[in-house]
Amino acid sequence: MWVLTEHLAVESLTDGCSDCAIRTHSICAALDHAEVETLGKLGRRRSLKAGEPLIWEGDESLLVANVVTGMLKLVSSTADGREQVVGMVYPTDFIGRPFGATSHHSVTAISDATVCVFSRSDFDIFASEHPALEHKLLERTLEELDRTRKWMALLSRKSAKEKVAIFLLDMAQRLPNLNTGSVREGAQPKFELPFGRPVIADVLGLSTETVCRQLTALKREGILEFPTRRSIRIAQWNMLESVTRAE
Amino acid sequence: MWVLTEHLAVESLTDGCSDCAIRTHSICAALDHAEVETLGKLGRRRSLKAGEPLIWEGDESLLVANVVTGMLKLVSSTADGREQVVGMVYPTDFIGRPFGATSHHSVTAISDATVCVFSRSDFDIFASEHPALEHKLLERTLEELDRTRKWMALLSRKSAKEKVAIFLLDMAQRLPNLNTGSVREGAQPKFELPFGRPVIADVLGLSTETVCRQLTALKREGILEFPTRRSIRIAQWNMLESVTRAE
DNA sequence: CGCCGATTTGATCGTGGTCAACAATAGTGG
DNA sequence: CCACTATTGTTGACCACGATCAAATCGGCG
What we know:
The structure is a homodimer of 247-residue chains. Chain A has 247 residues and is of the alpha+beta class. Chain A has two domains: 6-148, Jelly Rolls (Sandwich); 158-244, Arc Repressor Mutant, subunit A, CATH 1.10.10.10. Helices cover 36% and strands 21% of the residues of chain A. A four-stranded antiparallel β-sheet of chain A has the order 1-8-3-6. A four-stranded antiparallel β-sheet of chain A has the order 2-7-4-5. The first copy, chain A, has a three-stranded antiparallel β-sheet with strand order 9-11-10. In chain A, strand 10 (224-225) and strand 11 (231-234) form a beta hairpin. In chain A, helix 4 packs across helix 7 (237-244) and helix 5 (197-204) crosses helix 6 (208-220). Chain A starts with 32 loop residues before the first helix and ends with a helix. Chains A and B meet through strand 4, strand 5 and helix 3 of A and strand 4, strand 5 and helix 3 of B. Chain A binds a DNA duplex (30 and 30 nucleotides) through residues 159-160, 196-198, 206-210, 212-213, 215-216, 228-229.
């Protein structure tokens, strides 16, 4: 399993937050040194293996967290059991539902991951006393809402092929820089997927088979290459981008 | 056209906010009397006719607003022109994108509506000086994010029939109480739609024809009745609820 | 080399979109 | 009040996309 920024995987919070990899990219950036230390005392590091759940849908909202390394998915299930991934969580992202009674979706690791966990009530109180933190959280929540709405339009209006293309471009831009936060400069034409086809299907609201067919179609067209199962090389970036906007 | 809480449609902000219909249900509830008056001086009332746009997708984010009466839709378009409704806005809801450069979706009235508009920069500054307001806004944004994610699961996983059923139940619970905010007690079995089939289709990510077919199907099954085009009677509430969870 | 899970390919089917015709309603002016 | 028109809603025929089920193939690992 490919671990993102693995050199920090065993770091403990008792070491303090000042050398935290995401210190300046998470919501903690809103706090000064002393405040971060105070908040740090309320939290603890937790490691998750790929597939391990952190929060269950419908449970009382007991914890919130910052993602330090790895990726997680948010899943919402309809009343009759069908599920849909409603969000992907990257390092520096904030997880959980402050100020709320229950979690409306589950949170599960899709690669090995490390998170910095707080009890929700502790966090709520701390946040209320630190408007700058709440402001940062508000900004992030607004951004997340924008992203979620865009994704929603994608899910309901894009064809399978477009979805796959968009997913790959997204991944290619996000993955190489995961350890440094949300920076997305020049794209890497080759990258390793931290998970398999079923997860892609899950995220895009497609079946595994359909994802496969689209991937092989893109390979046949010379747009993609697969050196190994988990690695993807984007041979024709521009072509892939044009697939994005209808066929 | 059916105007929600029409008695306030011409109220002017120069009358002050103290008798505003949504004074205690919007984010303004976080403010005390003096603060509300200060904020009120920054805003102005604006009436919108059904179909009239308030904010264009991609535009610089210049204004934010509270919805006083009526309903609006948020629309996100994909790069190639296809559109999807990504949110419905009810009275007391907050519109717009504070602290952000651009609007990521358009906002358009789907019934006649009244909104209380602020310049985004004015609002940003005022909000920064009033943590209680920001806190309220954060709570609302978190709720909206939860709702949006639920809706996302619905859009990608539910069948046409289920979507229509869910939409009607939602409407039936929200509509009768629109003027009093988000209260949703006992459901009214009959109500008037403030818009036509095309808008329903739009919201559910379906074609008008499909919405029609599902509605007539539900009529044939004795679950619904249509006294007029715009009014809907839910003859079998329980039946409709069970349609909601697969067929 | 042989096994197991992940991926790929193939065949079939159902849902919902599209295009086209038709019906019903709401407006409009005589 | 009644044509007449424009708009909105309804129905039908057909088709494409993607789901599903089943089978084949690949790749990693003992």
